[in-house]
Structure formats: structure tokens, C-alpha cells
């Protein structure tokens, strides 16, 4: 086995290749330096905007809260009272007092005053008085009073139209 080493260059030199590589490196270095400086400017601008927004938020938080409007507060408390009203027990009391001789046509509860207005028809005066008695015995209503009554002559069976007002006990 024969090994032949030749340390003499036989290919022609290209001196322009080194200069071109040096120019590309310098260009790349300039581009990276420019991108870094523009990035620093962007970061500085974002930091200034963040500081401005932070100052605005702190100024808004330092302002005292506006005074509550008494009418809005009253409306809010009234709405809360209605939500907290035990409607199920009131309706159960009305259902317990109901019987065949009575047709309940309208129920108008007023949670603020704890009052209830009922309108309906009864087949007879005895049915109407029995219904008033049943309402009082239901336990949830008290002071059931007949406000208005009259015979409806336009209907063939001539029912007695009535309006009752009662106070209901909220538990």
C-alpha cells in the first residue's frame, strides 16, 4: 500500500470569495444591530404606554364612588323583597281555600304592603261566605275582607262577582 500526500495547492485561488464572505458577515451584523435598536425603541414606547394606562387607572380608583340615588335604592330593595317572598306558601294557601263553588279570576299580590287582592265569581252567597271563612282559616292570610260584590246578570247562571282584600303573613 502506497500513500501519497501532496501539500501543494493545485486549484486556483479565489481572493474575492473571502471579501464577499466578510461583506456578508458585516451586513448581517448591521442588520442584527438595527433590529436590536428598533426593538429597544418599541419596548420603551410600550413601557411609556403602560405607565400612562396605570396612572389613569389609579386616578379612576381614587375618585369617590357616586352617591346612591334613594329612588334606585328603594326600587332595588323592593325587587329584593319580591324575590325573597315565599310565593309557594301563598299560592298553597289559596289552593287550600279553593272549592267547586268559587272561580278565582285574578290574584294581585303586593309584597311591599303584604296585601293580596282577589277577584272572582261565586255560584251563591253561601259559597262566597264559605270562601271568606276558608281564606281566614288557611293560616297565611288574615283580615280577608269583601270589598265589592254584585250579581252578573249578563251570564246565564248569574254568578256573584266579588273582590276580596286580605293581608298575608310572610314568614
Largest sheet: 4 strands, antiparallel
Poorly predicted residue ranges: none
What is the helix tally?
Answer: 4
- Counting DSSP E segments of at least 2 residues, the number of strands comes to 4
In N-to-C order, the SSE pattern is HHHEEHEE
Strand arrangement across the biggest beta sheet: 1-2-4-3
* Mass-distribution shape: rod-shaped
Strand content: 15-25%
Q: Helix proportion of residues, in percent?
A: 40-55%
Structural class: alpha+beta
Distance between the termini: 114 Å
Radius of gyration: 46 Å
Average pLDDT, rounded to a whole number, is 84
Describe this structure in words.
- The chain is α+β, with helices and mostly antiparallel strands.
- It contains four helices and four strands; from the N terminus they run αααββαββ.
- It has helices at residues 15-62, 70-84, 87-97, 125-137; strands at 102-110, 115-122, 141-151, 160-168.
- The chain has a four-stranded antiparallel beta sheet, with helices on one face.
- Helix 3 runs antiparallel to helix 4 (125-137).
- The longest helix has 48 residues, at 15-62.
- The termini are far apart.
- The relative contact order is 0.10.
Entry summary:
By secondary structure, the protein is α+β, with helices and mostly antiparallel strands. The protein has helices at 15-62, 70-84, 87-97, 125-137; strands at residues 102-110, 115-122, 141-151, 160-168. Helices cover 51% and strands 22% of the residues.
Amino acid at each position: 500500500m502506497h500513500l501519497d500526500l501532496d501539500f501543494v495547492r493545485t486549484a486556483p485561488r479565489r481572493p474575492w470569495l473571502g471579501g464577499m464572505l466578510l461583506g456578508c458577515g458585516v451586513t448581517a451584523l448591521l442588520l442584527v444591530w438595527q433590529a436590536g435598536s428598533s426593538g429597544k425603541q418599541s419596548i420603551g414606547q410600550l413601557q411609556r404606554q403602560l405607565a400612562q394606562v396605570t396612572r389613569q387607572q389609579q386616578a379612576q380608583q381614587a375618585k369617590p364612588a357616586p352617591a346612591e340615588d334613594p329612588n334606585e335604592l328603594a326600587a332595588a330593595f323592593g325587587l329584593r323583597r319580591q324575590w325573597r317572598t315565599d310565593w309557594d306558601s301563598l299560592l298553597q294557601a289559596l289552593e287550600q281555600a279553593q272549592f267547586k263553588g268559587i272561580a278565582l279570576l285574578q290574584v294581585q299580590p303586593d309584597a311591599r304592603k303584604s296585601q293580596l287582592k282577589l277577584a272572582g265569581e261565586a255560584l251563591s252567597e253561601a259559597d262566597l261566605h264559605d270562601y271568606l271563612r276558608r281564606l281566614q282559616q288557611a293560616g297565611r292570610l288574615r283580615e280577608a275582607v269583601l270589598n265589592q260584590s254584585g250579581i252578573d246578570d249578563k251570564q246565564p247562571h248569574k254568578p256573584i262577582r266579588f273582590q276580596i282584600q286580605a293581608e298575608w303573613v310572610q314568614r
